[in-house]
Every structure is written in C-alpha cells, then in structure tokens.
Amino acid sequence: MMLEIVIIILMVLVLAALLYSELRSRHNLNEFKAMQQNDQALGMMQNQLEALRKQVNSQLGDMNRQLLDTTGQIGKRLDSASEMIGNVHKSLGKLGEASKQIYDIGKDISSPQS
C-alpha cells in the first residue's frame, strides 16, 4: 500500500512537472509571437521610412533642378540688361559728343566774323 501511495505521489509530481513545462512553453511561444509581431511592425516602419526618404530625395532633386534653371535664366537676363546698359551708355556718349559739336557750331555762328 505504501508503494502505491509513493507511485501516486510520483505520478502527481511528474504530472505537475509536465503541466508546468507546458505552461512555460506556451508562455515562451506567446513571447516569441509577440517578438515576431514587433519585428514585423519594425520592418514595416523601416520600409515606410525608406519610401519617405526616397520621396524626399526625389523632391529635393526636382527643386535643385528648378533652382539651377531659374539661376540660369536670371544670369541670362542680367547679361542682357548689362549689354543694354552698355549700349545706352555708348548712345549717351555719342549724344554728348553731338551736343558738343552743335554747341561749338552755334558758338562759331554767333561769334562776330571779321
């Protein structure tokens, strides 16, 4: 009879150990699943960040091209304006010379001739 009680106690202990082992395995499995979900979420976030980075780089490239085009256009306009100012300056110089010649002719005409 004593042997039967010892066997029953051992069976209860083995059963308790198996139950503990099963519960611990389930707990570890749940933690593993949670970690996988976190890894998947992290992967999705990394993919979204990469897509956003590509979009920002593309937009920055577009803006850079537009700025270069605009800078080129401004440079051309400044060159044109500078050329025009040079032409006006030449014309004013010629006009000044013509005015001086007219003044000299008027002075000669108005001076008494002997």
Descriptors:
mainly alpha, rod-shaped
Taking all Cα atoms into account, the compactness measure Rg is 49 Å
Instruction: Tell how many strands the DSSP assignment holds.
Output: 0
Structural class: mainly alpha
Biggest β-sheet: count, sense, barrel? none
Put simply, the count of helices is 1
Uncertain segments: none
Average pLDDT, rounded to a whole number, is 89
Please bin the fraction of helical residues: over 70%
Percentage beta strand: under 5%
Shape: rod-shaped
Summarize the helix and strand pattern as letters. Answer: H
| Distance between the first and last residues' Cα | 170 Å
Give structural notes.
The longest helix has 109 residues, at 2-110. It is built from 1 helix and no strands. It is mainly alpha-helical and 114 residues long.
